[in-house]
Prior knowledge:
Blueprint: H1 2-59, H2 65-103, H3 105-116, H4 125-145
Amino acid sequence: MGDDSDADARAQALAHTQRIAEDGRLWQHTLHENTMLFQRGNLFLVGQSLFAVAYTTLLTSEHHLVAARVLAAFGLVLALTWLYVGHRHRLYYQHVQRRAVERLPEYAATWSSWSTRGEGRGRGRSIVLIAYLLPALAVVMWGRCW
């Protein structure tokens, strides 16, 4: 009987240790996804800026108008890609957030206390800006170039 209770205690301790490790990975993954959303947005923004500079440079020369239109087409494709990738990442980020709130009591407490203080009301606005508004503006910009 003593061996069974020791084995059960060890199994419970191991399960508890594994749960703590899983929770830590989930918390880190949540932070990673938040960071990746903004880093990816910055990368697309830099790409769009480089296309815009190249486009305006080519417009100053009459001989390169066709090349400018090709660049505008690539800029439009990049903007649409940014919009698609941002949308998909935002959906995944929301899924990870919900999972972290459900599983991690400390994370849920932090999340709910932030939203009740008033600052949390706009917690999704920066994500919407990076995932939708900036790429949509780039689509409009490149669409007008045609």
